[in-house]
Amino acid sequence: MGRPLVRQEGSMVRLDQKMRPHPEVVDTEFESGEGVLLHLESKTYYSLNLTGMRIWRGLKQGLTLKEISHNLQTEFEVDEERAESSVLTVVGELSQQNLLQTPE
Amino acid sequence: MSKPCTKVLKTDGRPEAELLLYAARTCLDSEETERIRALVREDIDWTYLLRLALSHGVMPLLYRSLNIHCPDAVPKGALDQLQGHFFANAARNLFLTEELLKFMDLLEANGVPVIPYKGPALAASAYGNLALREFGDLDILVHERDVPRAKDLLISRGYRPNVELPSAKEASYIQFRGARGFSRGDSGVCIDLHWGVTLHKKSFSFPIDEERLWERLEPVSLGGRTVHSIPPEELLQILCVHGSRHCWEQLKWICDIAELVRAHQGLDWKRLMEEARSLHNSRMLLLGLLLARDLLGAILPEEVLQTMRADRVVKSLAAQIRERIFAEAGGPLRVFESSLFYLRIRERLWDGVPDFLQMVITPDGKDWEFLPLPESISFLYYLLRPIRLIGKYGVNPLRRSLRRAA
Fold this sequence. Notes:
The complex is a heterodimer. Chain A has helices at residues 50-60, 65-76, 80-96, and strands at residues 25-29, 35-39, 44-48. Chain A is of the alpha+beta class. Chain A has a domain at 25-95. In chain B, the strands form 2 sheets. Chain B has a 5-stranded mixed β-sheet with strand order 1-2-5-4-3. In chain B, helix 4 (59-69) crosses helix 5 and helix 10 (232-245) packs antiparallel against helix 11. In chain B, 58% of the residues lie in helices and 7% in strands. Chain B contains 20 helices and 7 strands. By secondary structure, chain B is of the alpha+beta class. Chain A binds chain B through residues 26-28, 30-32, 36, 38, 40, 43, 45, 47, and chain B through 64, 67-68, 87-88, 90-91, 93-95, 97-98, 129-131, 187, 223.
């Protein structure tokens, strides 16, 4: 599993939470597993690597962060600590960039 | 289906053109993949390659192929540049697609049926991914009767016509032209509103049965939704007319043909060839297909290849395009060569005459800049333009073009 492209900024999210993509954000995924998110209001785009895009896909599917972490552990054969750290890192950065809605 | 023998091009003996021709495909067999891997190990001028890819509108395809097949063999600076361009293009295409879908919703909510074509619909239909095709404008087709309503809706969404017309001239513009461009300053988005599949109705005419076209629309998945667009048989013909109109100067137009053929294995070739024949559009279609085969390995049915072999002019025009497409010294076809190309690409000489005259005598902005004339004697531009062109290019290009045509 590659390192997520985005870095963690002090986030307050919990692993049992579900975070939903902002309605004004659209995305496209490439064969390489990378992808691009575009915030239509700010017209700013963000590129995500394979790990980041897997996390984004989980968020779109309405999974909890714990479930997304579990999927990463299975897909990339990494331990729980590393997978959870990656999820929190990416989600923290996505939230900071206003790419996610307020947590439920 | 026969496997084509791809003709390999080199620009002045340089491998960059050959690498670009292999990389500008979404589907490569093992032999082609090995050829890419071998080429990147040669002495590639990466600055030149990227410039070539940029000028031919195929940067996303080049990035995709190199990133999938040999990322470690590409210098980091070049790969980073390609990746940056790829992501930026993907984001812009996402933005344009959203704008297209929103405007289509607005049109349909107001009772105006609309077909998206080229741009995002083509990227989705032929390449299977929005990110793999570069496009600048959005193209939509409406019925001629709906043009005034569509124009009002564009204006309500913040668009302005690129060329303002006196209201008295609006009706004749719609009657004689096939499209009008609109732009929105705040977003930089341009929408070409079409009510005919070519820009001018009286030149480069393409007498496709547009009412039947509306009945044959096929679903395309776009931005997570299903929209209806032009079926591949008609789209191939339209793209070949468009490519011919621009003398196939950019590789991306040939890629469109190759990818559309690859993506639609069930293409009704019999219907396609029969319709092209009845519209006297076979030569333009065959030229596009021949270039897609020779340059990008498109696989064509035997009956199409046989028809190609029988058309000496198509083979000659394809050779002319292949010679010029990457030749820095040659560059795009000059105005006289383009005019002759327009005559030769037609199966009936008189079909090409309006296009020839359009190019040679119809004034454009450069003529107006060259000699501003008052409106009362503006008809003199039709005499001045050929004189200006001969003054600019001399008579030699004209002689060469005539010799080639003969």
